[in-house]
Amino acid sequence: MSSKELKVLLVEDSQEDSLLLVRELVRGGYKLEHQRVETAEGMRRALEASKLDVVISDYSMPSFDAPGALQVLHESGQDLPFIIVSGKIGEDLAVAAMKSGASDYLMKGNLARLVPVVERELREAEERRTHRQTQEKVRRGKAEWESVFDAVSDLIIITDAEGVISRCNGRVTSYFPGGYDAVLGKRIDEIFFGAEQPEGQVFRFLHSQGEADEDVRFPNLSGWYNVASYPMRAEGNDRGFVHIIKDITKRREVEEEKRTSDRELLTLYAVAFRLQYTKGVEKVMGDLLFQLHNMLQMDFSCIHLFEGEKLKMRASLGVSPAFEKAMKALPGDAEWSRLAQSGRPFLGEEPDARFPDKAKKAAAAMGLHSWCTVPLKIGQEVMGVMTVGTLSGRSYSDRDVFLLCSIAGQLAVLIDNYSLYDKMKEKAEELYKSKMELKDNLQKVKRANIELGRLNTAKNNFIGIASHELKTPITSIMGGAEFLLKYSGIPMTPEQHNILASVYEGTVQLRKLVEDLLSISRIETQGPLAQKKPANLIQVCREVQNLFVLPLSERHITVRIDGEETDVPVDEAFVTLAIRNLMENAIKFTPDGGEVRLTGRVMKHARLKELAPTLRQFYTPFPNNVATAESYYLLQVSDNGIGIPADERVRIFDKFYGVGDIAHHFSGETAFMSKGSGLGLSIVRGIMDAHEGVVWVEEAAGGGSTFSLLFPLQN
């Protein structure tokens, strides 16, 4: 039989009695490890020094006793069997000791009971420890579940069978002021719907596998929610429900934004497809209005063009005969004509005093509610206006106005092309007549015809670019060339590879030219920016830098971005385009291994006087052309490249202007080795004009160039 290990603390003043106890335990089959103490301090040290299994104590000693030993054991916090072994002890003392926590007592003359008592008490102590551990696990598990319950991002509510809330997680209190007191004990329909009765039974629906829940809105909360309810049984026979309410507002907003963007893109695509100059201007305007009715749910629309000082209706759809008659021709001094000539959009929620009297009555009679009028213009020249309206109560947002302005801008370009085309036709007829009448001057007529053909070709090319007809084939060519170069795996000779690479690079340049032309068109036709929002320009610079990671790494050019991260009111898409053009130029003009620096800081209005001598070279009316503000944000892009000759710095912002010969247009050995379209800096200037700011260039310290963008900050 193997020995059982046992660690015993003997509280005993008699060495002989201690030996008797040890011998009895050893005889009982224990492998004993023991120590003897006879004072309270000695017992405390023993309890702290080692892990014990049992304490055996004499009842009375000269300087210590069993009740004192029990007190020391209790103070230590250890749950150990405490057995009293005494030569003489009265029954009343024994009972008192048991009430104080002693496990058992026996007489020194009857040690035969010692081993069974020890075994029993060790067993019961183990059971107590197991029970405590189980209770601790249950308590910890309950606390963990409580934490998880409160940490869940969904609203979790438990109700009884009548819908009265008995419990909820902490997320619920963030939606209802007043905390738990405002929720617990209330009916769930009451806190979500108030006095308004819900449609159907939102909180009675039981979720089942595979069945989709509907999205709902609550009168007492903003946003959209998804509700799932599950039955539960509490203690006894009480039944209740668990309701999980998920806030899906952000998801719905993203979905709505996607639907809106898809609708706008589809509208722009459909409009671009319809705007074909070969159909005739009247046919194009009619097709455009029909497309707007289908794509944007319009009920009324019309297009007016200026003919001299009068504003005449050239196309309409959905309007009544009375309205068409009243708006057919408007004199130049009419309010509608004056507003149209301003070149800015105007809109309203119902027909008002801006309508001619007869037109106002006709509009009200046909049920016109919301309406919007946008200019047809190229640059600052207003050609006419396009008006759309609906029967419904929805209002036109800034985004709607922006989309309509974009469409009107495309239509204006097409109408202008028609005008140019008609003028060129008239010129051709005059030249033909001159040829017949002036046979003796045939050589001059031939030269005139050659010049006319060149102008006609340039005109047709311009019309093709302005009509967006280059983007699709360019994309196809780029995609095909890139696939053959990078992914097809077709074996090619070096000569074939070089030819295909040249095709791809040329197509990239052509796409950049088309994008620049379209950017110029958007800037000139858009008018005042309607999409200004606060943006961190330093963060925008970092995002633009990511677009040039490959060329920067190939040419070992370092880009350093530093400055005050202040929110600036800008159209972020246009400003991103401006910074991208400046960074691309900086990379182009910087030698391999060079450095490009982008910095930004806020400057006070008083500093404009210091900039005046430099800026008046670029803007004669400066500072009158800059929006008045208490402070401005100055963003600078510097390089240590080849620089720009002083006599050409002012002219580089003109359209299609290129600095010097080809040597001024690259600095790398393998990349950026061709002239650009000459539009990049013109686009930057157009963007800054739209922001009522300025752009200029100076020689950078140590060589190279520094381009500066000055944005007004809101007061």
From TrEMBL:
PTM annotation (4-aspartylphosphate): residues: 58
Top-level lineage group: Bacteria
UniProt domain Histidine kinase: residue ranges: 465-715
Keywords for this protein: Coiled coil, Kinase, Phosphoprotein, Transferase, Two-component regulatory system
Catalytic reactions on record: ATP + protein L-histidine = ADP + protein N-phospho-L-histidine
Enzyme class, UniProt record, top EC level: transferase
Residue span, Response regulatory domain: 7-123
EC number from the UniProt entry: 2.7.13.3
Ranges in coiled-coil conformation: 421-448
Alphabetized SMART domains for the sequence: GAF, HATPase_c, HisKA, PAS, REC
NCBIfam families xref list: sensory_box
PANTHER family in UniProt: HISTIDINE KINASE (PTHR43711:SF31), TWO-COMPONENT HISTIDINE KINASE (PTHR43711)
Name this protein carries in UniProt: histidine kinase
Upper taxonomic lineage: Bacteria, Pseudomonadati, Thermodesulfobacteriota, Desulfuromonadia, Geobacterales
